[in-house]
Specification:
- The protein is of the alpha/beta class.
- The protein contains 16 helices and 10 strands.
- The chain has a 10-stranded mixed sheet with strand order 1-2-3-5-4-6-7-8-9-10, sandwiched between helices.
- Helix 6 packs antiparallel against helix 9.
- About 5% of the residues have low confidence.
């Protein structure tokens, strides 16, 4: 753990190696960066470089910097040109961070890199008054990890669309989905052992699901897998367009939504399950997921009620016996994990809920990659750790992975800044979040909603 005092000391030690290759004496004061984004009314300067492991980092700082910096994975390379960056610069907030180019699915290293990047920033610009870890997707997961591992280096975290069921739990859930589909819809396709030719595996899954979608039997079984795997029954069309949320009483619409979450849009669930699992197994040296001892009939009983009802209606319409398929799943040979791989994967990271700094999460209800049920697991762990006062969880009615507008993201960060300034949480209800986003010129209209996630069915305590 790198503390705020240790970060400041490290920043002084690093003062001679940050920036654009220009050495600066710590006694001479913070050298700052070089002018960049010349069209920006914030007249920012930038610093960039590489961390000890070779990871790129970059920061953009407005001329009227107010002392707040937001640090994120996936900033270096493209972040300076993102609309959110322009919004934060206009508010006097610096933004920066790292890339995943070196760490990939080595999440623990990515978490530690955020603290090192902050130290490089402070070596150049001086100690930040407030440092917030925030990112999307893997960056959201990393931000939550930063809150757990480096609470003395950062003042707060705003994880967005991160899989906060933790590394092991999240990928056990993904294993469940593909296991059910392989057994009932696409026998022989890879579930855990992903071949080197990931693109061919992805295409095989997409094609198999497309074929199954053409039959009543296939649609019923796709709905079953989605219910067990806690996928949203809402997905993007193949061309990337967004259909409206399905009616919760329309079984066919719910199944179509689940199918699109699995195989539609620019980032289909099954495609990510192929590419990322192969990377994960390479990082941890084996298979960190298992379904030994899992009762899929029980998972169905605990599934989202609307999708569970749809499964029953679709099975009846197809002339299938749901009990027979559940018995098939119960009798199927299970997949066992490599204990050493589980231990290594746990380091990156199992979230324990023992918060020491405030955390505000933002999740999309129709996110097919970071399924929203994982937020229940995270919230429950925080509650059990007695840290409820430090957590607020918010939701947007959005479909697809991390489909937040810049104003919705800015509203979340503004909420956290209010919390840090006052020491008390401002209102974080859906109306309050929407009002905050609307005041920030939201386009489209802000989409925060009141939402209670279902109970996550594969929690892993670590």
């Amino acid at each position: 753990m790198i503390g705020r005092k240790a970060t400041a000391c490290l920043a002084v030690a690093l003062a001679t190696v940050v920036g654009s290759g220009t050495a600066a004496s710590a006694s001479a004061g913070p050298p700052g960066g070089t002018p960049c984004l010349t069209d920006s009314p914030a007249h920012p300067t930038c610093i960039s470089g590489t961390l000890d492991d070779g990871t790129p980092y970059e920061f953009v700082v407005p001329a009227g910097w107010n002392g707040t910096v937001v640090v994120a994975l996936d900033f270096a390379g493209t972040g300076r040109n993102e609309p959110l960056t322009a919004r934060l610069l206009a508010d006097g907030v610096a933004r920066g961070g790292t890339s995943r180019a070196v760490t990939g699915w080595d999440i623990r290293s990515a978490i530690d890199n955020q603290a090192e990047a902050l130290a490089r920033f402070e070596a150049a610009y001086g100690r930040a008054r407030k440092a917030i870890a925030s990112g999307t997707s893997m960056g959201g997961f990393v931000a939550a990890g930063v809150a757990q591992v480096h609470p003395d280096a950062f003042d707060a975290a705003v994880p967005m669309c991160g899989g906060l069921g933790g590394s092991v739990g999240q990928w056990n859930q993904k294993l469940d989905t593909l296991f059910v589909l392989e057994r009932l819809v696409a026998p022989g396709l890879p579930v855990a052992d992903i071949p080197e030719d990931v693109e061919s595996a992805r295409k095989a899954w997409i094609d198999a699901l497309a074929a199954a979608q053409q039959t009543p039997e296939g649609r019923a079984r796709i709905a079953l897998a989605a219910a067990i795997g806690q996928l949203p029954a809402w997905g993007r069309n193949p061309d990337g367009s967004t259909p409206p949320p399905p009616d919760s009483g329309d079984a066919n619409a719910l199944e179509q939504g689940a199918y699109l979450a699995l195989a539609g849009g620019p980032l289909p669930y099954v495609g990510q399950a192929m590419s990322s699992r192969r990377q994960i197994m390479a990082v941890v040296g084996g298979n960190p997921s298992w379904n030994t001892g899992v009762d899929y009939a029980k998972q169905l009983r605990l599934a989202d009620p609307a999708l569970r009802r749809a499964v029953g209606e679709l099975y009846e319409a197809a002339g299938l016996k749901l009990g027979a398929d559940l018995k098939n799943l119960a009798d199927a040979p299970r997949i066992a994990a490599d204990p050493d791989a589980v231990k290594r994967f746990s380091r990156g990271i199992v979230l324990d809920g023992d918060l020491r700094i405030p955390v505000l999460t933002v999740s999309g209800t129709g996110d097919q990659i970071s399924t929203v049920a994982q937020q229940q697991s995270y919230g429950e762990k925080v509650r059990r750790a007695g840290a409820n006062s430090l957590l607020r969880q918010t939701y947007t009615e959005t479909v697809g992975h991390c489909d937040f507008s810049p104003a919705e993201q800015e509203a979340a960060l503004a909420t956290m800044l209010d919390r840090l300034r006052s020491g008390h949480w401002p209102a974080t209800s859906a109306p309050a979040m929407n009002a905050r986003a609307a005041a920030l010129a939201a386009d489209p209209a802000p989409r925060y909603v009141s939402f209670t996630p279902p109970r996550f069915n594969r929690p892993y305590p670590g």
